[in-house]
C-alpha cells in the first residue's frame, strides 16, 4: 500500500469520530437511515449475484446473521435490576439470548454442513 | 453512560456488518461459499464480543449467569439440530429458525419498552418518539414472522394439512387487523410509552395476522412463503437496529430483508404469480382447490424398470428433472447411483432444476449435493431448456406441473404463462409417478398421454433402485 493512501486512510479514520458526532448532533435517525438505505442497495446487488444452486444455504445463513439481534438481547439482559423495569428486561433478554443462540449456532452450522456437500466434478 | 458515546464500538459493529455482506457475497459460487460462511461467523463473534465489552460494567454475576445459560441451552439445541437434521427437512428447519428470530425481536422490543434507560432511549413513560415507533414496528413484524413461520413450519412438516384454509372475508379481516395494529401504535406513541397495553395489543394483533395471512396458502406455494418470512425477519431486525442505533443490526436487517424479497420475487416469477398477490397472501387456493381435476381415461404407455434401463443405457444424453416427489421419497442417493451406472455406460447425464421445484428456493440443489452430485452437472431452467431437443431421454422424477406443456399452450390453464421445462422435446420422456393423479394445481398433464412418454408408476426410490438393478 502506498504511503499516501495509508496517510489518507489514517486521516479519514481519525476524522470519523468527529464526523459521527456531527451527524448524530443533527439527527441520529437520519444517519442510521442513510446506512440502512445503502445496505438495502448492497443487499440487492449481493443477493442477485448469489447462484440459484445456493439459495437454500443463503436462507440458512441469513437466518444465522439476522440473529445478530442477540446484541439487543444482551443489552436487555444487562439492564440494571435497580432501574425500573430492569428485571423484566433481564428476563426477556435472557430468553431472547437463548432464542438467538439457537439460530446462530444452528444457522451457521447447518450452512457449513450444506456447503461442505457442494463438490465439483473430480473433487 | 460511556457505552453510548463510544466511537470504537460502532466501528466494530460496522466491521461485523461488512463481514455479513461478505458472507452473502461468498455464496456467488460454491467454491467461495465456505469462506463466506466463516466471515459470517467472525462477524457474529465481533458483534457479540463488542457488546459484551461495551457493557462490561453492567455485567454482574447474575447477568453472566443468564447469558451463559441462554447461550448454552440455545446454542446446544441449535448445534445438535444442525447436525442431526435430514437435508429433506431443510424447509421446515428454515421456517422454524425464522420464527425464533421473530420472537426474539418481540422480546427485545418489549425489554426496550420496559427498561428504556438501559437502551438510552428515554425513561419509562417518556420514550423518544422515534424509538417508540421503531420498537413497535419491530415487535409487530417480529410477531407476524413468529406465528406465520410456525404455520409454515406445521404445513411443511406435515403437522398441518398443506391444503389452503379459507377464512370468510379474509382480506377484510386482514385489513381490519392491520388497521388495529396501526391504531395501537398511535396510542402507544401518544402515551410516550406508558400505555404498555397498546404495545401488547399490537403485538397480539400481529400474532393473529401472521396466522390469518399464512393459513390460506397451499403447501406447494410454501417456497414463496418461506422467502417472504425470511424477508420479514430481516425488516424486524432492522427496525430494532434503529432502536439500538446499531450498525451491525441495521446492515444485517437490510441484507436479510432484501434477500428474502428477491427470493420471493424469483419464486413468484417461477410460478408466474404477481408479487403483490403474494404480499397480500391468500393465493394458491382459489384456482387450485376448485380445479381438482378428475381422472382421465385416455390410454397411456406404461413401462417397467427394465424398459427404462434399456432406453437410458442406449441413449447418449439423458437429462434428469427432479421435483418435490424425489425429496418425499428420499430418492436422491439411489438417483445418483443410477446416474453413475449410466455414466459408466458412456451416457452423458445432466440435471435440470426448475426454480420452484421442491418446497424452498434451491431445495433440489441441496439434495443433489447431499447425494454427491457434482454441482457443475446441475443446470438452471434457462441454461438447459434448449438442450432437451438434443437429448434422447428426459427422466422426470417427482416433478409434474413444472413440465406441463399446457403452461405454454393452454390459455385457460391456471398455470398458463409459468416457465416450464421443455421435456417433451426429448426423444423419450420417462415419468416416475406414484399414480396417474394430477399435480398440486389439480391440472392434468398432457405429457402423460403423448406417444413419446413412458409412465413408470411406482414409488420414486423403489423404481430408481429397480432401474439400477436392471442396468
Description:
The complex is a heterodimer of chains A (123) and B (471). Chain A is mainly α and 123 residues long. Chain A has five helices and no strands. Chain A starts with a helix and ends in an 8-residue tail after the last helix. In chain B, helix 1 (8-25) runs antiparallel to helix 2 (30-54) and helix 4 packs antiparallel against helix 5. The interface between A and B is large, with 89 and 121 residues.
Major sheet details of chain A: none
Per DSSP, what share of the residues of chain B sits in E-state strands of 2 or more residues? 5-15%
Number of strands of chain B: 8
Could you state the order of secondary-structure elements of chain A as H and E? Answer: HHHHH
The rounded distance between the terminal residues' Cα atoms of chain A is: 36 Å
pLDDT < 50 stretches of chain A:
14-24
Q: In DSSP terms, counting alpha (H) and pi (I) runs of 4 or more, how many helices of chain B?
A: 18
**Major sheet strand order of chain B:** 5-4-3-6-7-8
Distance between the termini of chain B: 74 Å
Main interface pair? Answer: A-B, 89 and 121 residues
Work out the radius of gyration of chain A: 21 Å
Q: Considering DSSP H and I runs of 4 or more, what fraction of the residues of chain A is helical?
A: over 70%
Radius of gyration of chain B: 25 Å
Q: Write down the overall geometry of chain A.
A: flat
**How confident overall, as mean pLDDT of chain A?**
83
Amino acid at each position: 500500500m502506498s504511503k499516501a493512501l495509508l496517510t489518507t486512510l489514517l486521516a479519514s479514520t481519525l476524522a470519523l469520530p468527529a464526523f459521527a458526532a456531527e451527524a448524530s448532533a443533527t439527527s441520529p435517525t437520519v444517519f442510521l437511515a442513510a446506512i440502512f438505505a445503502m445496505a438495502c442497495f448492497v443487499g440487492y446487488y449481493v443477493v442477485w449475484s448469489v447462484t440459484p444452486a445456493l439459495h437454500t444455504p443463503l436462507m440458512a445463513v441469513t437466518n444465522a446473521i439476522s440473529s445478530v439481534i442477540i446484541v439487543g438481547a444482551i443489552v436487555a439482559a444487562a439492564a440494571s435490576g435497580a432501574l425500573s423495569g430492569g428485571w423484566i428486561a433481564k428476563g426477556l433478554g435472557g430468553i431472547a439470548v437463548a432464542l438467538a443462540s439457537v439460530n446462530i449456532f444452528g444457522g451457521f452450522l447447518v450452512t457449513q454442513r450444506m456447503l461442505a456437500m457442494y463438490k465439483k466434478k473430480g473433487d | 453512560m460511556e457505552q453510548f458515546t463510544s466511537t470504537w464500538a460502532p466501528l466494530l459493529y460496522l466491521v461485523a456488518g461488512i463481514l455479513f455482506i461478505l458472507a452473502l457475497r461468498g455464496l456467488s459460487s460454491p467454491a467461495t461459499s465456505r469462506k463466506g460462511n466463516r466471515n459470517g461467523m467472525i462477524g457474529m463473534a465481533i458483534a457479540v464480543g463488542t457488546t459484551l465489552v461495551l457493557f462490561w460494567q453492567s455485567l454482574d454475576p447474575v447477568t453472566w449467569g443468564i447469558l451463559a445459560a441462554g447461550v448454552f441451552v440455545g446454542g446446544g439445541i441449535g448445534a445438535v439440530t444442525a447436525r442431526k437434521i435430514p437435508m429433506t427437512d431443510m424447509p421446515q428447519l428454515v421456517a422454524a429458525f425464522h420464527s425464533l428470530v421473530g420472537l426474539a425481536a418481540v422480546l427485545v422490543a418489549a425489554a426496550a419498552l420496559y427498561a428504556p434507560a438501559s437502551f438510552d432511549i428515554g425513561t419509562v413513560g417518556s420514550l423518544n418518539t422515534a424509538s417508540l415507533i421503531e420498537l413497535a414496528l419491530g415487535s409487530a413484524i417480529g410477531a407476524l414472522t413468529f406465528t406465520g413461520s410456525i404455520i409454515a413450519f406445521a404445513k411443511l412438516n406435515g403437522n398441518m394439512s398443506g391444503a389452503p384454509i379459507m377464512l370468510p372475508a379474509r382480506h377484510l379481516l386482514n385489513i381490519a387487523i392491520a388497521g388495529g395494529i396501526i391504531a395501537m401504535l398511535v396510542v402507544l406513541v401518544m402515551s410516550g410509552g406508558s400505555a404498555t397495553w397498546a404495545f401488547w395489543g399490537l403485538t397480539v394483533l400481529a400474532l393473529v395476522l401472521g396466522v390469518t395471512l399464512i393459513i390460506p396458502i397451499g403447501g406447494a406455494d410454501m417456497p414463496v412463503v418461506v422467502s417472504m418470512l425470511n424477508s420479514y425477519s430481516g425488516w424486524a431486525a432492522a427496525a430494532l437496529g434503529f432502536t439500538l442505533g446499531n450498525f451491525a443490526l441495521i446492515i444485517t436487517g437490510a441484507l436479510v430483508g432484501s434477500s428474502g424479497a428477491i427470493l420471493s420475487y424469483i419464486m413468484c416469477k417461477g410460478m408466474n404469480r404477481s408479487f403483490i398477490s403474494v404480499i397480500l397472501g391468500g393465493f394458491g387456493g382459489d384456482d387450485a382447490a376448485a380445479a381438482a381435476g378428475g381422472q382421465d381415461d385416455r390410454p397411456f404407455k406404461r413401462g417397467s424398470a427394465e424398459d427404462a434401463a434399456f432406453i437410458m443405457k442406449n441413449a447418449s444424453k439423458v437429462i434428469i428433472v427432479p421435483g418435490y416427489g424425489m425429496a418425499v421419497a428420499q430418492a436422491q442417493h439411489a438417483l445418483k447411483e443410477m446416474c453413475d451406472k449410466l455414466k459408466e455406460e458412456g451416457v452423458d447425464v445432466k440435471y435440470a432444476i426448475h426454480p420452484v421445484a421442491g418446497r424452498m428456493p434451491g431445495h433440489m440443489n441441496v439434495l443433489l449435493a447431499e447425494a454427491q452430485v457434482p454441482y457443475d452437472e446441475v443446470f438452471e431452467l434457462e441454461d438447459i431448456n434448449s438442450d432437451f431437443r438434443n437429448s434422447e431421454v428426459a427422466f422426470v422424477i417427482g416433478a409434474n406441473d413444472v413440465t406441463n406443456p399446457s403452461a405454454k399452450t393452454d390459455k385457460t390453464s391456471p398455470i398458463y404463462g409459468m416457465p416450464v421445462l421443455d421435456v417433451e422435446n426429448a426423444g423419450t420422456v420417462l415419468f416416475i409417478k406414484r399414480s396417474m393423479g394430477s399435480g398440486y394445481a389439480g391440472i392434468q398433464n398432457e405429457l402423460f398421454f403423448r406417444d413419446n412418454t413412458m409412465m413408470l408408476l411406482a414409488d420414486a426410490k423403489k423404481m430408481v433402485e429397480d432401474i439400477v438393478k436392471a442396468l
